[in-house]
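== Folding the chain ==

***
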Amino acid sequence: MPSEATTRTKPSAFNPWVVLVIACLAQFMVVLDATVVNVALPSIQRGLHFSASNLQWVVNAYTLIFGGFLLLGGRAADLLGRKRLFIAGTALFSVASLVNGLAQSSGMLIAGRGLQGLGGALVSPAALSIVTTTFSDPAERTKALGVWSAIAAGGGAVGLLLGGVLTDLASWPWIFIVNVPVGVMTIALALRLVPETRVDAGHRAFDLAGAVTVTSGLVVLVYAIVKAQAFGWGSARTVGLLAAGVALIGVFLLVERRSVAPLMRLAIFRVRTLSVADTVLLLVASGMFGMFFFASLYVQEILGYSPLRAGLAFLPVTAGIVIGAGIAQQLIARIGARNVAIAGVLLAAAGMVVLTRLPVHGSYLGDLLPGLTPLSIGMGLTFVPITLLGTGGVTGEDAGLASGLFNTAQQVGGSLGLAILSTLAASRTTSVIHSLAGHAGAGAALAARLSGYHLAFAAAAVMLALGAVILVLALRARHVRGLELTASPVAT
């Protein structure tokens, strides 16, 4: 049986809170970059002469590689060293950011975005596993995961603001170049202040077949999801790609059952808290990614906000997430992680329902903020216990793998949710316009578009509610009792 080992220096020689800050700094950079590009897309299209069909790959190239390599990155962190993968991923992400900022063609930018995704896939699971193995005290681990969750959930909202600020006040290359000094600082701090931990597996074999099949399967699956709206969900290409992705993942599972040194020990799915948390996270991420997308469209296309003003509109979301995460840390000790997660998901779903009533001639304070407030606090309440459930019930040898699975669920869920919700919204808008029999004026066209947004928000609320149902039915008090005490202590 593999055992946890450290290299060079024992973690006890390091300040765990400093380690948390460094890990969160890198994670914030990765999460922020998933949304910072959205408000800059029109400027990027003009600057590099992107065609309308190729512009989507500024987003998709990052999503595709990031989602496809997360699981491999998580397991590699366990086997090769979490600090080593963290630094390597941060370096790759920073170099790719510089390439993007200096890009002179659409192809150069798309390639750079893919490299950013690969760097992010190395950084995120390594950073989360560093956090979970650094904090041995249950109360401190809950506080640390609260900070982590606020960063992970709030980074998307900050990305919208920063994208608007940099695009309006400077130019679009700066949304990428700003990562470079942050990455350099993170690497310098990590070299001195983060301990190295890894699994002493007792062998040197590497599961190449497992690595190839799972990475290929996830890449094909994410590609099918992000292209489903363009191809059509029922088209032969979409169905074929989905089938190919599922088949590759099926082959991966067969390989893992027979491998003497599996990339992913399938027994990890017997941990009920992990399996349930990852399933719920997939549903929650599906709804939340859609919320950011359609709420951003609402303030810009319906209310007519500029990119900068649109970014500022989402500042309360970040504040709400931080507030919710702080409350979650206090409630977990009193009523348990499961109950806090249920309350958070239901509160977020209620906020999403409020957004289904947004009017064409709405106001920010009277219409949008009343929905964003409970939604953002609910997100904060949800992500802290879900992160604890998804990573706290495994041994130290599987910390990176559990982190990789957790991040994969979030990324695949976000891609899947956005694809589904975008399809529903477009179909509803088209249906409403056709029902007007060509008599739609500008106001009616906006109302038709908003009707599509309403359907997307309603579907997102259903996704969140389904997550709460799964928590209630699949996770009992006995499954989470003593969770913090059974979590792996820091390696020594």
The longest helix spans residues 399-435.
